[in-house]
Amino acid sequence: MIDRVLTSRGVDNFDFRFIGLIFAILGLGVLSIYSVTHDQGVAFPFYAKQLVWILLGTVAFLVMWLSDYHRIARLAYPAYAIILILLVVVLFEGKSSRGAQRWIPMGPFAFQPSEFAKLILILTLAYYYSERPRIGWLQRVVLPGLLVLPGLLLILKQPDLGSGLSFVAVYAAMLLMVGMRSKALGIILLFSLMLFPFAWEVMWGSLHDYQRQRIMTFVDPVSDPGGKGYHALQSQIAIGAGELTGKGLYGGTQSQLKFLPEGHTDFVFSVFAEEWGFLGVLALLILFVALIWLSLEIVARAKDQLGALLAVGILCMVCFCVVINIGMTVGMFPIVGIPLPLMSYGGSATVMTMASLGLLLNVKRRRLSFF
Amino acid sequence: MDTAGLHDSELGELQRRLVILRVGLLLVVALLGLRLWHLQIREGPYYRDLSENNRTRSVVVEPARGLIYDRHGVLLANNVPSFTLYVSLEDVKDRDLLIDQLSTLLGLDAALVRTKLTARGSKQLPRKVKGRLTLREATLIESHRLDLPGVMVQVESQRNYPGGVMASHLLGYVGEVSPEQLEKPEFADLHQGSIVGQYGVEKFFDQLMRGQAGQKSIEVDAVGHEKRTVVVEQPHAGDNLYLTIDARLQKAAEHLLGEESGAIVALDPRTGDVLAMASRPGFDPNVLSRELTPKQWADIVQDEGRPLNNRASQGQYPPGSVFKVMMAAAALETKTVTPETSIFCNGGYQFGRRLYHDWKAGGHGAVDLRRALVQSCDVYFYTIGQRMGIETMASFAHQFGLGEETGIELPSERVGIVPSEAWKRKAKNEPWLPGETISASIGQGYVNVTPLQMASLIGTVANDGVTFRPRLVQAVLDRATGELQRRPAVPKRTVTLKPGILSRIREALAGVVKEGTGTRAQSALVTIGGKTGTAQVAALRTGPEKDIPKKFRDHAWFVAFAPVEAPTIAVAVLGEHLGHGGSASAPLAKELIETYIKLDLPASSGMTDGAGARERDAGGQGTR
Lengths: 371, 624
Fold this sequence. Notes:
The complex is a heterodimer.
Chain A: H1 2-7, H2 13-37, H3 46-66, H4 69-74, H5 76-93, E1 95-97, E2 100-106, E3 109-111, H6 113-131, H7 136-157, H8 161-179, H9 183-205, H10 209-219, H11 230-241, H12 253-256, H13 268-301, H14 305-329, H15 347-365
Antiparallel strand pairs in A: 1-2, 2-3
Chain B: H1 2-42, H2 44-55, E1 56-61, E2 68-69, E3 75-87, H3 95-106, H4 110-118, E4 127-133, H5 135-143, E5 151-160, H6 168-171, E6 174-176, H7 179-182, E7 195-197, H8 200-204, H9 206-209, E8 214-220, E9 226-233, E10 240-243, H10 247-257, E11 262-267, E12 274-280, H11 285-288, H12 294-302, H13 311-314, H14 323-333, E13 343-345, E14 348-351, E15 354-357, E16 365-367, H15 369-375, H16 378-388, H17 390-399, H18 421-428, H19 434-441, H20 451-462, E17 466-468, E18 473-478, E19 483-486, E20 491-494, H21 501-515, E21 529-535, E22 555-562, E23 569-575, H22 581-599, H23 607-623
Parallel strand pairs in B: 2-10
Antiparallel strand pairs in B: 1-8, 2-3, 3-4, 3-5, 6-7, 8-9, 10-18, 11-12, 11-23, 13-16, 14-15, 17-20, 18-19, 21-22, 22-23
Helix pairs in contact in B: 10-22, 14-16, 14-17, 14-21, 15-21, 16-19
């Protein structure tokens, strides 16, 4: 099958750019993980594991890229049912870590169903809207909302606020792109989305530390285990201390000396920013923006609604995670457990993100409809 | 195709709405970029400083305190390594929990730990919580280190006094600088937890001995573990002191006092060198230099024997008949009597309606000055005292250094009392009564002196009128330059007496030992001159001495010098409540003088050749 694709000029410069961007970001991620964990002193350190995840992710990417996305979409409902079951299983059988029960142990590794639930939700919603015309409020807003709800509740029960928020974001993005008929509503949504960071700054910024702390412990008890804003502060110190050119590889004292916890997972951006400075961060942002820009191109050139919806869902999810993750490391948002796509260490997230991007590229490849 | 066609309009709509995403994306990324620019460029230096502060901790490296040696290089005070527990407040996550853990692990009072951690001061400097951890405690802390963020065990030097109780009042002890002391300018370069001298030589010469603290900048990780030392500012060790005392003589003096309360001071009259200075009961400076619990401290302070009182320089007693030495000199100088003037003693002196008794019932008969001193005839001195008047007596007493500081280099020296009309008006707001002159003339009544003043007085007599300021430190080794600075003997005053008066008195004092009240100070080794004294404690006494409760018994004085021909040592012995000076204190003075003569060492040498070798010793101590 791969032969056929490669020989039928299915692969063009666009694909190479897209894949190049993915691996560039993955590379920077591995570099930062390596920097923080190189002296871990275990046989199989995080950066090595991450390379394995990337390998697995590449397989998932190829599968998702080279299959027919219509056929994949048709599996959406059963897949959603299975993931719901897994989300129930994880509540009872799951492995706890830092107060949350998110993982199903699988041999030496652990599998995080909530990560895969994101992609499956996108498939489900895209399939739902494209299956037949959905008319009226009930079909366009309420029913898909009911579809999202069980997954969302199960995820929040873990608790995993980050994945929960991603769920809501995907749903909101779908509504924004197709669910809402009225232009006015769309525009209101858009503006509120755009104004959100400012509004957040004003509202959140006017609270006292202890008030924020109370709110956060209420909303998400595991967000800040060190307590008292330690995590957010250390992250900002790390990023700020990077200055223009950074402290260089291994030079990040914040992460090297473990002042900044979770340097290889949720706060990998802070590690990168401390070691490579503003210039490095700009380059990284450009890579992400370029990747998302190419994704937008794919949506724009999508030939059917299913493809467009899949692409826009994946795009919004990735975009959301990037913005929220960086936003929380720089102190614009409260700390919620959302990893930086393609950079943070994590098997499920890496494989899921790469599979999603494979599906996204698939939409572009299948722009001619054969049916 | 049909369904797809139906959706085409929606697809177009969706693709038109992409502009929302494009604009939104650019906007949000711009916002993030702005925030990053703010953090990394505008506030970058600030955050860099924060990150530096995060990882570096300033640790004070305490200097090695100067060592103390005796005049021949015998070590009296040094430093030994010990474990000290510090807490770096910056690394403490949960203070209450830590206080709990520390008090459980080390059995410390939780409130005490809390005071140490919450005391005012820089948050950057680690707080000292406990010194002198036992090895067991240190290992206990180290093994729990992961649960005790911010807790550090440092090896530091602990003051050590190899002689234990020996010369405790002289050497003093050290302790943490108190909050009150920290407010004072002379402690300005110190910080909470610094060790300073709190008593004795340790206190008086603290500025020389304390040295200068260094600083170590260590890199720590988030848990407060030391990763590496970044900068070291070497501490400067304090200066070494070479005292004038002779450890062997000091030990002998203390041994002579034994369990009794009292003081012995031995001076070299030619230089003022303090050869020995004993005060009993003593204390163990090793114990006091540790951190005492409030209970331990209260026990020491409330001890009835008042061990913290240096009886040699702070104990004030009536001089009793020792005062007659000064009286005799004054009488001759003022020509109140000639050496030959004879006064008849019938055992009492009638003044007004009161009869002042002589110590010897029945009296001494006709006595001249020599016999009056030898026999310690009270009536003779009542008579000349009455003739001279209190003001003349007071002025001579001052000349002999009474009523004023000897100037010894020890903190809180007491001056005693030389009574006079002016003094009584000022102190008691009462007029002087004529009868009080009579009591004063035999050193009773208001007259009060310290044993050190008495040693200085007899030293002045021995040295033919020249008083030297008592000298405790003969040399200081500046550890920075390696230079040994000698401290000269300081002549304080020359008593204005006609020539011959003091030699006559010395001869009489030799007679005291040869044939008078001080015969128990007779020595086969050396000629000794001396004077007994018995200081009344209770005015009214009934019955024989042994029936009187000890705390009402008289203090026994003996002052002495030897050899009579060319004195090299002047001694004052005071035994509290030991009764008669002639029986109780004279033998002690003799023993001490004999010990000194047997040591057979020239007064002020020995140090020169010894010092070189000691300097090398001291260097070895300092680098360790």
